[in-house]
Amino acid sequence: MSLLDVTGLTVGIRHSPLDILRDVEFSVERGEVVGLVGESGSGKTMASLAIMGLLPPGIELRSGSVRIDGTEYVDQESGRVRRTAGQMTMIFQHPRAALNPTMRVGRQISRVLELNQDLHRGAAREEAIGMLARVGIPGAARVARAFPHQLSGGMCQRVMIAMALACKPEVLIADEPTTALDVTIQAQIFDLINELVDETGTGVLFITHDLGAIAEMCDRVTVLYGGQVMEQGSLRALFTEPRHPYTRFLFEAVEREVDLRVEERGVNFALTGCRFGHRCPSAHPACVEFPPLVEVGPDHRSACFLHAEAATGGVVDGSA
Amino acid sequence: MALLEIRGLYKTFGHGHGAVPAVRGVDLDLERGETVGLVGESGCGKTTLGRILVGLTTPTDGKIVFDGEPLDGRLSRPEVRRRIQMVFQHPAQSLNRRMKVSTTLAEPLHLLAKADDETIKDRIDETLRLVGLDAGFLDRRPRQMSGGQQQRIAIARALVPDPDIVVLDEPTSSLDQSVRGRIIALLRSIQEQRDVSYLFISHDLSTVRRIADRVAVMYLGRIVEEAPTEQIFEDPRHPYTKALLSAVPTMDLDDRKQRIILPGETPSPSELPGGCSFQDRCPLVHDRCRREQPQLETVAAGRRVECFAVAPDAPQRPAG
Predict the structure, then answer these.
(1) Residue in A294, A225, A289 with CA at minimum distance from that of residue B176
(2) Does the CB of A219 have a partner CB in chain B at under 8 Å?
């Protein structure tokens, strides 16, 4: 049993047949960092909001299951995700926008402690300063009295991490936590997240579009495109032997200029079949159906009919 | 003599205690048909430098010689404006969203070249082809195009008056990886056809590596290192350049280089310490760095470094 288990997650626009996420599944083990990677519009942020129960108005969870330590958090009747009461917390891409601009940062953290840990105000304040020191903020007592606009982006992200940790979460969702930061600050934040995972055994869902950051941080990876899981598996399997045409395309785009027949057409959410179909160099008639995820190696799955064909044809290709 | 020579350029915003020195004594050359990558983290003054070149910001002090002609105070002359153009980071914000592409592209010719309608039409068609779009785009407005297409239009707008220099300020930062590669390839092919010079401003080192002939690294308003591109990436000399390069996450799983984590953050430009501005984060800092401002010294052919600890033409060792 995994720490976080997400299966069959389907999210759509209310009163419309369009699905933004289709049958998305992944899992996170204790003390593990799992990457969710994709380009803009791939649904990576929507997936994190769905499992946090934070979907914006007009967007509904159609089906799926979110389990933490075996406990189901999707209420099957209302289709809502129950409050995870600090079991799962999230840090966002723009830390300054996620903090309350009118409240001192120390108070923002101590309120979380009052609510989640049942501490009274004085003890919560002390604990908040302790948390700030723990995420590597020098002069924590002074910073606790600052407002978000008085702190740099890197500092604000540390405050967000401190606040997320104040709940002692089982699972931490980090949605592009360093995209708005400079690389030297990004290196500091990566170090901090790794340190916390080692210390507390928290499982991290790490969302990014940066394949370098994935290679640096993650143990396992799920690749999303158009709200579908294209490929998932261990970091090494995915990076050394990418099997799905989209994953290969993504890697090539980093290395050199890729010449795809169709560029920038974006995602067609009305498609019933594979959403990469219209950009795919190996598309064929079967791709109007939705390809299932199939095993292509140890801890390595890919959603493409190419693999299915190879399997039914009796050919065990490549990775076996 | 270089096409563009910048000598001792300063720009300070504000006065007195709150004064922010954004550019503090920059010397830089740009040859015809050359691409110089200007790299640095947020707040290092790279954008201000670019804006000074196109005349959007007036320098506080210093000299700019463009094609043998001093530019001081004459940046607004139409003929000079025509020859130095700029592309901005967010195409959606830098294009007039009420204008059709045809109007957007005709405007610089009306204003700067005083061309007749026939010439304008030819030039627009030619430029549109150059950026890889067809005449079907002429009637579109920005919202009817993808981010990559918008950026192509922004590039076309800069190229339409046939400039000698294009300042590109983070032209690919807001684009997806797969689109980014295409834009870089496009810029290179345009350069081959038009012999135009680029000042490519970016915080993204891997993109700069793919396009620049030479790279200048900025930190707090000063160029701290300048060298041919491959030399910067293979053999960085300045401690800041080393840390910056080591902080970039790589996709190579087997070559996990040791990251240099710089302590602290970039100090505020309005509260600079005396001496070297990198002193508080530098692993090689010694007494002299706190007393004296190092100057950009030539250490090898085509290489300049601003650090007391870097000896000319010898491997780096901390000076005593």
Answers:
(1) A225
(2) no
DSSP state, A54?
A: -
Q: Which of B185, B244, B251 sits opposite A184 (nearest CB)?
A: B244
CB atoms within 10 A of CB A45: 17
Q: What is the dihedral of CA B89, B95, B97, B101, to 10 degrees?
A: -130
Which residue from B51, B162, B186 is spatially nearest to B105, judged by alpha carbons? B162
Cβ pair B216, B38 in contact under 8 A: yes
Cα–Cα distance between A9 and A137 in angstroms, integer? 38
CB–CB of A33/A212 below 8 Å?
no
Bridge partner list, A60: A12
Amino acid at B106: A
Alpha-carbon distance A234 to nearest alpha carbon in chain B (angstroms)? 12
User: Which residue type, as a one-letter code, is found at position A13?
Assistant: I
Would you state the structure tokens that stand for residue A310, as one six-digit string? 């190879």
Q: Phi then psi for A313, rounded to 5 degrees?
A: -75, 0
CA proximity to A178, closest of A94, A298, A288, A56? A94
**Coil vs helix vs strand at A226:** coil
Structure tokens at B19: 């004064």
- What residue type is A275 in one-letter code? R
Residues B184-220: pLDDT tens digits? 989 999 999 999 999 999 998 888 999 999 999 999 9
List the single residue in A191, A254, A257 with the smallest CB-CB distance to B261. Answer: A191
The answer to whether the CB atoms of A257 and B184 lie below 8 A apart is yes
With a threshold of 0.90, tell me whether the complex ipTM lies above it: no
**CB interface of B with A, residues 144-173, below 8 Å:** 146-149
Determine contact, residues B270/B18, Cβ cutoff 8 Å.
Answer: yes
Contact A264 B42 (CB under 8 A): no
Q: Give the residue carrying structure tokens 């083990």.
A: A29
Q: Is A7 exposed, middle or buried (0-12, 13-18, 19+ CB in 10 A)?
A: middle
Which residues on B lie below 8 Å from A209 (Cβ)?
176-177
CA distances from A94 to A181, B11, B175, B182, B265 (A): 9, 29, 18, 28, 18
CB contact under 8 A, B41 and A260: no
Q: Within 13 Å of residue A190, how many CA atoms lie on the same side as its CB? A: 26
A 10 A CB-CB count for B99 gives 14
Q: Cα separation of B201 and B168, whole Å?
A: 6
CB contact under 8 A, B205 and A183: yes
Alpha-helical (H) ranges within chain B are: 46-54, 78-83, 91-94, 101-108, 117-130, 147-159, 177-194, 205-211, 229-234, 239-247, 287-291
pTM of the model as a whole: 0.84
Spell out a b/e string for A78-115, using b for 16 or more CB atoms within 10 Å of the CB, else e.
eeebeebebbbbbbbbebbebbeeeebbbbbbbbbbbe
> Which SS3 state, helix, strand or coil, does residue B255 take?
coil
Determine the distance from the C-alpha atom of residue A193 to the mean position of all C-alpha atoms in its chain, rounded to a whole number: 14
Q: Minimal Cα–Cα distance from B75 to chain A, Å?
A: 32
B250 and chain A in contact, CB less than 8 A: yes
pLDDT digits (tens, 9 = 90+) for A131-182: 998 888 888 999 999 999 999 888 899 999 999 988 889 999 999 998 888 8
